[in-house]
Amino acid sequence: MNELKFLYDDDDILVCHKPAGMATEGAKPGQMDVISAARNFIARRNRENKGGRQRDLPPYIASVNRLDKPVEGVLVLAKNKKAASSLADQIKKRDVKKYYYALCYGIPDTRKETISDYIIRREDTKKAFIVTKQEAESYKDESITLKDGSRVRLIGGSPKKADLTYEIVRQTEKTALLSIHLGSGRFHQIRAQMAFRGFPIVADNDYGSRESLEYARSLMVKDICLAAYRYEIIHPVTGRSMSFQIKPENSAIRMLLDV
Predict the structure, then answer these.
(1) Residue from 231, 186, 241 nearest 15 by CA
(2) Which positions ≥6 away from 130 have C-beta within 8 Å?
(3) Which domain CATH number covers 22?
(4) H-type alpha helices, 148-250
(5) Contact call for residues 254 and 1 (beta carbons, < 8 A)
(6) CA–CA separation, 121 vs 159, rounded Å?
(7) How many structural domains are present in the chain?
(8) What is the CA radius of gyration of the chain?
(9) d(CA 201, CA 190)
(10) 207 and 195 in contact (C-beta within 8 Å)?
(11) pTM, 2 dp
């Protein structure tokens, strides 16, 4: 799949299935991103269904959460400022429920577990990085001191708590397919937390190990085996609970789900 799929549409929200390889917004010139594709979709429909000046007005589309460019999954977009504010408030209060599939190289000892870490984003590598509580508490002047004595500058402020709950839903001799309920929404959180524990996500070029990347090549899998498969919200206007779910296109994940 290389095109955006629209799952639900009303006056306030637009829900889509973002393919792997498409940026949520801010794509390079000549490339399409989710926001641009969604605006084009709404504008084209407006030209067909509406008359007068309203048909030519640029549609309002806003993302209140993002998926990393390599990651596929469900995205909920706001079609007006009221919806955007409501969805952002739900995310802040952790009323939104986000579920992911992650195919990890290696098999955790515990089938279901809640894990919690302190996480930072390093200025030197631009990547997420797990630190100890003592290291997190050393935060001062936009940097922390690691246990080896080195000082690391951060992007995005002080260290944050990152928590998630995973459950093994399928496994092979070398891998485990996890269903993950994301408790917080930190930068590259799932990728960093699982890699830190020795279970990197298959085909993750940023956090993967040599073994996990070799395994991905052996499967001829290029896209990271991580997918946001379910997203639950309260509708910003009606107040109705809504759940949107997809079956990932990622071939390695789909193969295990089809067993």
Answers:
(1) 231
(2) 117, 118, 119, 192, 193, 196
(3) 3.30.2350.10
(4) 189-196, 210-219
(5) no
(6) 8
(7) 1
(8) 20
(9) 9
(10) yes
(11) 0.92
